[in-house]
């Protein structure tokens, strides 16, 4: 594309969600040029995350283009962008990093006051959308919207990667895998020889397991309703599997019994606030730490007996595993290239972009970890 392409509207294919739970429709959409401090990206591969599924089933902002785990190539840059140039390979970031706000400069947080999680379906900079169909606006998801051949993101919501990195693999690092690894390393700081229990063995839960294994945890107990996940989980470090549907007593009692008083760390990776209480009850007195990563569909309010905290348990939330998106993600990419972390095994399906509804069905039925959609060449 010539440098003048940054001034042109692009018409391309995108998967548009017109209503909650309705099949996505491949439409011809118009993608506006990047505005100041934005880049337009040609999406190469994008994967389906459970939060896309949750939002598609329940949120009220439609029509919308979902997707936030993606890899691609910069097509054009907006005014003021000097970090990226046309042809750069990038990963998109659902939560950005301006590097100037109070949160970014604190050294204590990976939250950004300027480019944090966007919930209104628009761009951070001007509260407008860059997508339209026949002149009608189509809304964004997490200011990324990667279920489109082209998308526009703020330059603070992308990170440059080496052109040697396989784009069809690394896209899954944009959210779920990084979130799980970071929860084990940055939030919980899992110690060698410890006992870990993980509720929910999807991509995030299995990434927690991989992180705990690499930290030397001696027992990693996986809890899930799907017994078919038992064997797969072993490859990521799970040492024991408990089928939630086969327990004859509350699962927290099972955990406390087999761990002599509770796990050192528990991770809630389901998105169920009642399970957060269960995870707290599955931790030991004194130092037991529960980390919650899931996004709940319903009942967002947590309820727990104060006695759990008086006895020394701690509850912590985790957004993107505590990683500063632009600053820290390159180190995870390097670890992947050095084969220090496993990413490929999370990809259970590769599909053509036109088959995106199949990916949604596979995830809804619990038959996949990550489906990677490949855009047309």
From TrEMBL:
GO-annotated molecular function: alcohol dehydrogenase (NAD+) activity; S-(hydroxymethyl)glutathione dehydrogenase [NAD(P)+] activity; zinc ion binding
EC number: 1.1.1.1
Oxidoreductase among keywords: yes
Family assignment from sequence similarity: Belongs to the zinc-containing alcohol dehydrogenase family. Class-III subfamily.
CDD domains registered for this protein in UniProt: alcohol_DH_plants (cd08301)
Pfam families according to UniProt: ADH_N, ADH_zinc_N
Cofactor(s) of this protein: Zn(2+)
Protein name listed in UniProt: alcohol dehydrogenase
The Alcohol dehydrogenase-like N-terminal domain, residue ranges: 36-161
Domain Alcohol dehydrogenase-like C-terminal intervals: 204-335
InterPro entries, A to Z: ADH-like_C, ADH-like_N, ADH_Zn_CS, GroES-like_sf, NAD(P)-bd_dom_sf
Keywords annotated in UniProt: Metal-binding, NAD, Oxidoreductase, Zinc
BP GO annotations: formaldehyde catabolic process
This protein's GO CC annotations: cytosol
Gene3D superfamilies: Medium-chain alcohol dehydrogenases, catalytic domain (3.90.180.10), NAD(P)-binding Rossmann-like Domain (3.40.50.720)
Entry superkingdom: Eukaryota
Cell inner membrane listed as a keyword: no
Subunit record text: Homodimer.
Catalytic activity reported: a primary alcohol + NAD(+) = an aldehyde + NADH + H(+); a secondary alcohol + NAD(+) = a ketone + NADH + H(+)
Main EC class the enzyme belongs to: oxidoreductase
Signal peptide: none
């Amino acid at each position: 594309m010539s440098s003048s392409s940054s001034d042109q509207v692009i018409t391309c294919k995108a998967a548009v969600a017109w209503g909650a739970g309705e099949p996505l429709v491949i439409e011809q959409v118009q993608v506006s040029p990047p505005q100041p401090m934005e880049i337009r990206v040609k999406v190469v591969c994008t994967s389906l995350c459970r939060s896309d599924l949750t939002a598609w089933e329940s949120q009220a902002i439609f029509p919308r283009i979902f997707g936030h785990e993606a890899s691609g190539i910069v097509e054009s840059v907006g005014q003021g962008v000097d970090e990226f140039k046309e042809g750069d390979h990038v990963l998109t970031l659902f939560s950005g990093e301006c590097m100037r706000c109070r949160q970014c400069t604190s050294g204590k947080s990976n939250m950004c006051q300027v480019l944090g999680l966007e919930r209104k379906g628009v761009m951070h900079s001007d509260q407008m959308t860059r997508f339209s169909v026949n002149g009608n606006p189509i809304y964004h998801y997490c200011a990324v919207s990667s279920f489109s051949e082209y998308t526009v993101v703020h330059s603070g919501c992308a990170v440059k990667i080496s052109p040697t990195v396989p784009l069809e693999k690394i896209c899954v690092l944009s959210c779920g895998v990084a979130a799980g690894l970071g929860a084990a390393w940055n939030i919980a700081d899992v110690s060698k020889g410890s006992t870990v229990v993980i509720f929910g063995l999807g991509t995030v839960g299995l990434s927690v397991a991989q992180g705990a294994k690499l930290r030397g945890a001696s027992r990693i107990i996986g809890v899930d309703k799907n017994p078919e996940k038992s064997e797969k989980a072993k490859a990521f470090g799970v040492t024991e599997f408990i089928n939630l549907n086969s327990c004859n007593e509350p699962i927290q009692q099972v955990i406390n019994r087999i761990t002599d008083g509770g796990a050192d760390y528990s991770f809630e990776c389901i998105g169920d606030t009642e399970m957060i209480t269960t995870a707290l009850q599955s931790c030991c007195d004194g130092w037991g730490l529960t980390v919650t990563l899931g996004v709940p569909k319903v009942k967002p309010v947590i309820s727990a007996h104060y006695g759990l905290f008086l006895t020394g348990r701690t509850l912590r939330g985790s957004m993107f595993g505590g990683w500063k998106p632009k600053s820290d993600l390159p180190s995870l990419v390097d670890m992947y290239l050095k084969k220090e972390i496993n990413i490929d095994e999370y990809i259970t399906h590769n599909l053509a972009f036109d088959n995106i509804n199949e990916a949604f069905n596979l995830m809804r039925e619990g038959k996949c970890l990550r489906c990677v959609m490949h855009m047309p060449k």
